[in-house]
Specification:
- InterPro entries: ATPase_NBD (IPR043129), ROK (IPR000600), WH-like_DNA-bd_sf (IPR036388), WH_DNA-bd_sf (IPR036390).
- Belongs to the ROK (NagC/XylR) family.
- The chain is built from 10 helices and 15 strands.
- With about 350 residues, it is an alpha/beta fold.
- The protein is globular, with a radius of gyration of 22 Å.
């Protein structure tokens, strides 16, 4: 480590001691000796200590999970219920109660929840303001403030992001493979997360990825957004009940436009699409072959999401863990202040 960083052995040793005492690293048996001298101490990320709380609110369910520093899911809670009849305060209060259960269970398991990230099916502005979530009927909702009304979450840093964006980031971390891909989140609404060279592309205002409102049939079915013929009216989770072939064709039409415009090499189908991937695949690929200009030169790879339906909340939890990994000194300062 000293050679890789350019730091002295004494400095590296002091830094490692801080990380061990701060509960970020743990010593393990050293690897087998390969030469002379005292064997180095083995180190690994701890499975106790800081953890991320991932939350998700979608049209027909609430979800929470806790992921430790190693990436292991330690707690998982899902409640299936239609959120459209509830007003935003009620829905977020119910999610807050679920989050409180997850946090208490995690702390009983020896973890310290470092923060929470919330995945929502809509457009998010800075500081957790949900500008619009058409399928929930939300507009200008301060989700962070509502979650902080729950006593067990009042002291917890909370961030909010679009569910497809967080799912794409979760997929990127877990697979560690394709650095450029388009993630499609198939729920009652449809979202997309675009990863370019290992970085999430958000657009100028952070509102990119609303593929569910790409028009596939201009004079088609009316959509909740006020337009007609939107993709989610033909390939959203409720529309799938009307026929998977039509959903696959609509997805293929929309995805062909994205590939022609952005030249993405890989498309990942998540959410409700992951379990039925093989049933949708042929219809989507038929449209891609017909409509993508370069299909004969470089066919697009289509695959199911590795994280399946849990991708958004897993990605949300991972956003917290990633922040701790990238700034361990910041976490150590925060954790020391807890006991002052």
């Amino acid at each position: 480590m000293s050679a890789a960083t350019g730091l002295t052995r004494a400095t590296v040793s002091a830094l490692v001691d801080d990380l061990v005492s701060g509960g970020l690293l743990v010593e393990v048996d050293p690897p087998p000796r390969t030469g002379a001298g005292r064997p180095a101490v083995g180190l690994t990320l701890t499975s106790t200590g800081p953890a991320g709380l991932g939350l998700e609110i979608n049209v027909d369910y609430l979800a929470a999970c806790v992921v430790d520093l190693t990436g292991a899911v330690r707690q998982r809670f899902v409640e299936h219920a239609d959120q459209r009849p509830a007003d935003p305060a009620q829905a977020l209060a119910a999610l807050g109660a679920l989050a409180a259960r997850a946090r208490l269970a995690a702390e009983a398991d020896g973890l310290i929840v470092a923060g929470a990230a919330l995945a929502v099916p809509g457009l998010v502005a800075g500081r957790g303001l949900v500008r619009v979530a058409p399928n929930l009927g939300w507009q200008d909702i301060d989700a962070v403030a509502e979650l902080h009304r729950v006593p067990e979450l009042a002291d917890l840093p909370v961030t909010v992001d679009n569910e497809a964006n967080l799912a794409a980031l979760g997929e990127l971390r877990v697979t560690g493979g394709d650095p450029t891909f388009l993630y499609i989140s198939g729920e009652i609404g449809i979202g997309a997360g675009l990863v370019l060279d290992g970085e999430l592309y958000r657009g100028v205002r952070g509102w990119s990825g609303e593929i569910g409102h790409v028009t596939v049939y201009p004079d088609g079915r009316p959509c909740r957004c006020g337009s007609r013929g939107c993709l989610e009216q033909y390939a959203g989770q409720e529309a799938l009940e009307s026929g998977e072939p039509l959903a696959a064709a609509a997805l293929g039409i929309a995805l062909s436009a994205v590939v022609n415009l952005l030249d993405v090499p890989v498309i990942v189908l998540g959410g409700a699409y992951a379990p039925i991937f093989e049933r949708l695949r042929e219809g989507i690929e038929a449209e891609l072959r017909q409509r993508v200009l370069t299909s004969g030169l470089a066919p697009v790879a289509l695959r199911p999401a590795a994280l399946g339906a849990d991708a958004a909340m897993r990605g949300a939890a991972d956003a917290i863990i990633r922040a701790v990994r990238e700034d361990p000194a910041g976490w150590l300062r925060r954790s020391s202040q807890r006991y002052v």
